[in-house]
Amino acid sequence: MTAATVDPGAITAPPIRSSAEDFKARMLRRAPLLPALIFTVIVTQLPFLYTLYISVIGWDRDHPEFGHKFVGLKNFRAVFSDHALREAVLVTVELTVLVVLVSLALGLVLALLLDRRFAGRGVVRTLLIAPFLIMPMAAALLWKHAFYNAQFGLINGVINGLRGWFGNHTPTSWSILTDHPLLAVAIPLIWQWTPFMMLILLAGLQSQPGDVLEAARVDGASAWQIFRTITLPHLRQYLELSVLLGSIYIIQAFDAIYTVTRGISNTTNLPFAIFETQTESGDYGVTSAEGVLVVFGTIVVATFALRVVSSLFKEEANS
Questions:
Q1: CA atoms within 13 A on the CB side of 115
Q2: Quick one: CA dihedral 81, 82, 84, 88, positive or negative?
Q3: What residues does the ABC transmembrane type-1 domain cover (predicted)?
Q4: Alpha carbons 69 and 56: distance in angstroms, whole number
Q5: What are phi and psi of 117, to 5 degrees?
Q6: Residues 253/275, Cβ–Cβ less than 8 Å
Q7: CA–CA separation, 104 vs 196, rounded Å?
Q8: For residue range 90-101, what is the model confidence (pLDDT) as tens digits?
Q9: Among 71, 171, 247, 305, which has the minimal tally of Cβ within 10 Å of its Cβ?
Q10: In angstroms, rounded to a whole number, what is the distance separating the alpha carbons of residues 60 and 286?
């Protein structure tokens, strides 16, 4: 058996292409993506740019004779001087924090349970995902009439049944709609967004390296130690993604508030406040200015939530 020899003279260096040829080659590779990029820009960016334009002009639905005049930042000053809108900002923050944190905690618990093998796991997973597949308006109607109704709702029915066992047959006057309206709005949102959090975290759990977990068990680590030192740091990016996407979507929640409370009893968030501004005043300029502020507020809240979660994990890693 003889070893193969290679003639150094037979090896030719690859042709050197100029920067212009490299640029042309890169453009040719990316050209198939151009239609999708143009479509995305048209669908997402042009409406926002048009909203920016309307936010700096005067456009009153009830007075078309005034036309569309440039007013600068007048619409934004009107928005910041609106006391009701400032209260809507607080309600938006409270609702977003409550829904995202509770959904994240419940989603993590359900993901940990579904990460184990048991009979009927596929059926249980499908049933848990079902609330996320229901239309938001239908889910809010379901909770408002089937659960919250003071006369025939499930919640008051259970309370009256328990009161009857203890000899008190007087129907309760308590109602979650009137006593805790913000909680009544948050519950349908939590019910719908918990499966979303669960799916993201379950994907993170199932991507854990099995050999690392097995080595920890062999070394005698308890289940809590494995979760705190291996599983939780591994889930960091998945938790960040859940908080980020959940915050962005919950800030824009409209269906639950419109259906359950119609914005009364201090449950008006920013999207519902914009809806009220448009329907009551018909001022397109102020409405667009509010919409622009909601977009920037969403970016700020999502960035803040992301940094808070990241700092918590950094502290955990340094401890």
A1: 20
A2: negative
A3: 89-305
A4: 9
A5: -90, 130
A6: no
A7: 9
A8: 998 899 999 999
A9: 171
A10: 9
